[in-house]
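Working notes for the structural subgroup meeting. M.R. asked for a predicted model of this chain before we commit to crystallization trials. I am recording the input and output together here so anyone reviewing the notebook later can reproduce the run.

Input as submitted:
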Amino acid sequence: MSKKQLFDSQQLSITIERLCRQLIENHDSFEESVLIGIQPRGSFLAKRLHQRLQDITGKNILLGFLDITFFRDDFRRRSQPIQANRTQIDFVIEDKKVVLIDDVLYTGRTVRAALDAMIAFGRPQKVELLVLIDRKYSRDLPIQADYVGRRVSSLPTDRIVVQLCEQGFAADSIQLVSHDETK
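Returned structure, recorded in token form:
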């Protein structure tokens, strides 16, 4: 097994800043825009982006968290039940510009489930996707991120390990973990 560091704390901080500036370019005042983190791991990134955006803009930006557990297409296929999280969206997304946030874009199935789950809160004017890591060449569905921290070429056997301070880790670290198939 080999590990490749994709981000350390400083690199992640720079990337968060860039992603925030890109969002500001496209959402101006954020009056018609909302941020929604996909539970569980997208919520940690969403909180960090939300805080930084509010610091930069001085505006109150709506933030919610969306649980997709019962919308997943593999919900009943697993041997172990998936642990559900809590959806926390106390606003209507009708005619809003929604920025869905997740840590890693892999097959696209999580995003598809999030789109299905999100409709319970209204019909958005537009939906954009922001991810920290885009695993290229691995889509099962035609889904593409609008805002990307880093694009990574990886094998299906590889894993992306995201460890953020908000999750209880001492420091931010994002690694690509490859399993040596020759052994």
